[in-house]
Write a structure and sequence with these properties.
The protein is an alpha/beta fold. About 45% of the residues lie in helices and about 15% in strands. It has a seven-stranded mixed β-sheet with strand order 2-1-4-5-6-3-9, with helices on both faces. Strands 7-8 form a two-stranded antiparallel ribbon. About 30% of the residues are buried.
């Protein structure tokens, strides 16, 4: 009987092993400043990563108010003062994700540690948060391009961790998210038809209230709007100078930057960076072939 049980357990372990990812080295938070959360059927693991780039907050132009608000909130958190979970929402390419990366590059020396969680892995967010609860470091758990199509498990997990459990998130964890949607969920005309007036006050229907309730759990909302032409051109000039030196910006470059944005139908920080790469690259090739 014991032999049969041992054999069955061995077969079960062989099957379970196939579900698990290759074990990564443990994250050393005294050295590593960022990590990715990888979920698997039996939980998940943290995988240390290097910052994607060296972008700094000074590199982000046209979003001064948003930079100051997020920087102040994060510094308060790092010093143990009250701070809010943050939702960065708005136009695509306007610098939301870049601001979080720049925040890490700026504040890593002050103790900030960043963990990125994919939207589809948010169902394991309570497990991750529980693992961080007793650590001495201070973490921002970050989800990029967050949106939901309905009340799926990931939506419920995030809502619960933000403000729905008895204990709430630990004192050493904040949640930051970026999204193109302010309320994180799609809004339909049918939802708004439930809105009505009561004694002169506007009252939303249950569907709208449910959708607003998630974003309301973020205490800091930062809106990112499409760039004006001036902000776009200033950003183009900044990145061209960053890639090729101050003398690389010219009237010709300015005219090409305007044409680039017109053809793409968008003015944004992302478009400015892409233009700078194209312009500096093409000019460098021209110089080497003349």
């Amino acid at each position: 009987m014991d032999g049969d049980l041992a054999l069955r357990l061995s077969r079960l372990l062989d099957r379970v092993e196939g579900w698990l990812p290759e074990q990564s080295p443990a994250v050393d938070w005294s050295r590593d400043i960022a990590a990715l959360w990888q979920s698997h059927p039996l939980g998940g693991q943290l995988v240390a990563v290097s910052p994607r780039d060296g972008v700094r907050l000074d590199d982000l132009i046209g979003v001064e108010r948003q930079k100051r608000a997020l920087l102040d909130n994060t510094r308060a958190f790092l010093k143990g003062y009250p701070a809010n979970h943050a939702l960065l929402w708005g136009a695509r390419g306007s610098g939301k994700s870049s601001m979080v990366r720049a925040l890490l590059n700026t504040l890593a020396g002050e103790g900030l540690r960043l963990i990125q969680v994919d939207r589809h892995d948010l169902v394991a967010l309570p497990i991750l948060v529980q693992r961080l609860r007793d650590r001495p470091e201070r973490f921002v758990v970050y989800c990029d391009d967050l949106s939901f199509e309905g009340s799926d498990d990931a939506y419920k997990a995030l809502k619960s961790v933000l403000d729905g459990t008895l204990t709430g998130p630990p004192e050493n964890v904040l949640l930051y998210a970026t999204s193109n949607r302010r309320h994180l969920l799609p809004e339909s005309m049918a939802d708004n038809q439930e809105t009505h007036l009561v004694d002169g006050e506007l009252h939303h229907g249950d569907a709208v209230e449910e959708k607003i309730s998630l974003s309301d759990r973020f205490g800091l909302w930062l809106a990112f709007h499409p760039f004006s032409q001036q902000a776009y051109l200033e950003t183009c000039q900044h990145w061209v100078a960053h890639l090729a030196g101050e003398g690389a910006w010219s009237e010709e470059a300015r005219a090409e930057a305007v044409r680039y944005a017109t053809l793409r139908g968008v003015r944004s920080g992302r478009a400015a960076w892409q233009f700078a790469c194209q312009w500096v690259g093409s000019q460098s090739i021209r110089l080497t072939t003349e």
